[in-house]
Amino acid sequence: MAYQNARNQAVSSADFAKLAHGILQQRFVRACVYEVPFAYVVAVVANLNLRRGVFSLAYALVSPRTLAYTIFAYIAGIACLAIHAHTFHVTRAAHTSHFPRLQRLLRRPQATVTVVTTYVVLSWLMLMVHVRMFGGARAWLYPEGAYGPPQLNPAWLASWLFATCVGVAYGVTLVTDERLQLAFPMLEQSRIHALKDRLPMSFSRAFGFATSVLCKFWLAYFVVGWGVYRSVCGVLARIFSTSAYNVASPLFSASMLAFWLHTFVLVVLTWEFAHQLFEIIVTEPTRINELSVDRNLCLLSGLRHTESPLIQHLAFQELYRVAAFSMEQRVEILTDIDRTSGTMWTQISAECIAVISAATGQLKAQAPAEKPKPVAPIKKGEAVDVRAGGAPMADILQGRKPAVPAPPPAPAPVDLFGVEAQGLEKYVLTTLRDMLVRSPLGQRILRSHRAQSTSVFANFQQQVWAIRSLIRLVECSITEDKYGVVQTDIARVLETLFAYLIELERSAMQSDGSGAYNVQTANRQTIAMVQVVRNALYVFTTSFYEYLEALKLPPQQAKQLQAFANFSA
Questions:
Q1: 506 neighbors 365 (Cβ within 8 angstroms)
Q2: In angstroms, what is the C-alpha Rg of the chain?
């Protein structure tokens, strides 16, 4: 309804970014509103007592403790939404080794510290809420009869240490697993359906994460916990007097372990709900171009916007929606020829081709140097041009000095971590590399393709949208292109796609010099992109099957396209 009202009152601005900023601000407000029912659900689950049956559920729905817990869970959810809005990104670095995981932590140190600190504080907040509402270990223990100085409760100290570990682990996981990167949906679906698919995964992930951290914390605290406790007590003894009687370890208390698990499953569940809610609402397909009078120019400005990757991704997402599902706007794009800078099809296709060509160029730059071809053996009786020192024998006999061949250029040092590593990140990673180079195992690791950082698929989703939008517009031009503006560019589109496909296939099956083929770092995404390009070419072949001879393509493209026409590619 809001989009329909805005379309009825279309604005004259054709600035996609300006309109997108207003839409994104409205979406963040909606996310804050939608967080209320999620916080309430977590509060009801927290106050549910299954031993009392259905009456416990009825009481949990309306109890004052549920209302209080909802307020604190909502505060935690809003904080998660704010930190996601401040630190999210839409591009990624495709690699699977442990060095890139460390690189992600160091790439933006301030953002990493902010994320980890925020989740540690939220973990402490929710621990205090649970202790006040459901009971927990008190901070101080007193000797029998309440005589003598108090002693720090080891269960209290362990609880706060565990809360700190949960916050640190969750924040680090968000950064290293690139969960702060937005995952855009391929198809437009309602928020209810998107949440329906993600809610079970959120419950499973919350329970699995809390259980995993609890097991690791139990083992670590079993080894060093007593030393940590004695050290803290020693520091406190310098401030005020404490007693030193023995108490039981919290690690062997079933009630304490159950309290920790119950508390932090709900805490992580609150964070997961906020994470899923933010991603669903922000990546929801937009109709921003419909808010402008000049829809085509507005969409083109979004495709050309480079200041914000999110806005550019939203523009390509909208282009794919228009190309795939909106016949009215497709016809409007293909028939918009009264532009001083060229037809609208030419300008939009140029932006899509630029995205594909940039990825092709990066793959070519990462290709290994070609090995010198072996010299064929000289057959008996074959004429041979005799040379001495690289010069013909005639030059030697006439006294001319042979030309000294220039030495080959020294190979450039290999940067394992990419040009994006700077500052502290560059220093730490380079130091680790230098340490590993001195060991045989390190040299083997650094020579492998898995230790190299590939950034070709940093905008993987954007490339998919560009390829599919481009080929869909070409496919529909058979019946919707009234002026034939697409036909003159078909050869250029095919040339771009074939060039990218060749580099992708070479990258997917790259020899390591030993005769065997190894899997590259981004092999999974490489194969996925190969399928995207092949599907696009098959779509073109099946759509233009009856007109392939009339296209008059260059011989190389015609030969490549023939394999798709024979379904043998």
A1: no
A2: 32
